[in-house]
Design brief:
The complex is a heterodimer of chains A (173) and B (202). Chain A has 173 residues and is α+β, with helices and mostly antiparallel strands. Chain A is 45% helix and 10% strand. Chain B folds into 2 domains: 59 residues; 125 residues, no CATH class. Helix content of chain B is 46%, strand content 7%. Chain B is built from 7 helices and 4 strands. The chains are: A alpha+beta (173), B alpha/beta (202). Chains A and B meet through helix 4, helix 5, helix 6 and helix 7 of A and helix 2, helix 3, helix 4 and helix 5 of B.
Chain lengths: 173, 202
């Protein structure tokens, strides 16, 4: 559960059709964004429903940096008003379809940034963005050797020689 | 209290202390005692390698990819599996199980990853994949040039209750085998059976 702080009306303006939300990143940057843009996030939608039930406005504190949050907002702004099948709560897990062209450019970032975005997207429950990031990571390791995969994702071979040479490891994956 | 020695000095001291028994090496004429010394040192080396693996696992645990939510890595592996299927000469996506212990454990526990049973990898593989797939609907594939034999049909029949697809190539002998097999369970979720016509089929 995120920590929620009260916000007065002057901080979060807007009573009309396009209400504004105040999102606070882990580096304490306050970012005002239209509720409509963030409606792709099931997490944010649930928070907003909660505000309506209590008739109180709140800022939503998020556990990731403003840099990552701005990237997620950029994604949500781009697809504002679009129906993306993957965001349907009943949609099947992402399949073989390639990463959308715009998403490919959007996700052309370094490995750590990509991992931060997927983590944030998962927290915010934006299934389409999680799927695109996961596909991008799967593409990074496609056709690579075990050693190359380790290097790409920054992990070490931690098997003992015994584990590495055991029949159950090599003969059956 | 933390040890104030540097890492190098600490581990050197530890190795010296553990290998102190080597200070008095038995003469070469005492073959049995020499053998014992080798066994002891091999035991120490194996333990050091285990400690090294453990340290590497701890290092891996702080890598950004290891800190993803538990649902994400399986999703990445599943997408990777779609693009890197198993082949006769290549393990395809299964290579992810050789990257590190964490990936291996996640992949082994993700039943959906094991649903495509490539029959020509052999009995051991087929058995392992079926065990790891648990009750997930499975797809049996003999490969485009695979000749299916009677022993290969056995697992299909035993796992018919969660078989989603069967795709068999060859000379039709396998289909004849399937025709004559004593069915152990109904094919509740079988959607496709792709196979050549059995020999002498009207």
């Amino acid at each position: 559960m995120p920590t929620i702080v009260s916000v007065d009306d002057s901080t979060v303006p807007g009573e009309g059709s396009s209400r504004l939300l105040l999102l606070v990143s882990s580096d304490n940057k306050h970012i005002v964004v239209e509720e409509d843009i963030m409606s792709r996030s099931r997490f944010i939608s649930k928070q907003v429903e909660g505000f309506e039930a209590t008739s109180q406005r709140h800022a939503i504190l998020l556990p990731f940096s403003s840099f990552v949050l701005n990237k997620v907002i950029e994604y949500c702004s781009h697809y504002r008003g679009y129906y993306l099948l993957e965001d349907d709560p009943d949609a099947a897990p992402p399949g073989r379809s390639p990463v959308r062209e715009w998403d490919q450019e959007f996700l052309d970032v370094d490995r750590n940034m990509l991992l931060r975005i997927i983590k944030a997207a998962h927290y915010l429950e934006i299934k389409s963005l999680v799927g695109s990031c996961a596909r991008a990571i799967a593409d990074m390791i496609r056709g690579k050797t075990t050693e190359e995969m380790r290097e790409i994702l920054g992990v070490e071979n931690d098997f003992t020689p015994e584990e590495e040479h055991s029949p159950s490891s090599k003969c059956t994956g | 209290m933390a040890d104030e020695r540097g890492a190098e000095a600490y581990w050197e001291d530890a190795a010296r202390s553990r290998l102190g028994f080597l200070d008095t090496v038995p003469p070469l004429t005492q073959a049995e005692r020499i053998k014992d010394v080798y066994e002891r040192i091999d035991t120490e080396l194996a333990a050091m390698l285990n400690a090294l693996s453990l340290s590497k696992s701890r290092r891996n645990a702080i890598a950004p990819v290891s800190r993803l939510s538990p649902e994400i890595l399986p999703l990445i592996f599943e997408l990777h599996a779609l693009e890197a299927p198993l082949r006769k000469d290549h393990l395809g996506w299964i290579e992810v199980t050789h990257v590190c212990r964490h990936w291996r454990s996640i992949a082994i526990d993700t039943a959906a990853l094991w649903r495509n049973i490539f029959m020509h990898l052999g009995d051991e593989w087929v058995g392992t994949m079926l065990a790891r797939a648990k009750a997930t609907p499975v797809v049996f594939d003999s490969g485009w040039d695979g000749i299916v034999t009677r022993p290969m049909v056995g697992p299909i029949m035993e796992h018919l209750f969660h078989t989603h697809e069967v795709s068999i190539q060859g000379d039709g002998q396998a289909v004849a085998i399937i025709h004559n097999w004593p069915f152990l369970s109904p094919a509740k979720c079988l959607r496709w059976l792709r196979a050549p016509t059995p020999p002498n089929h009207p």
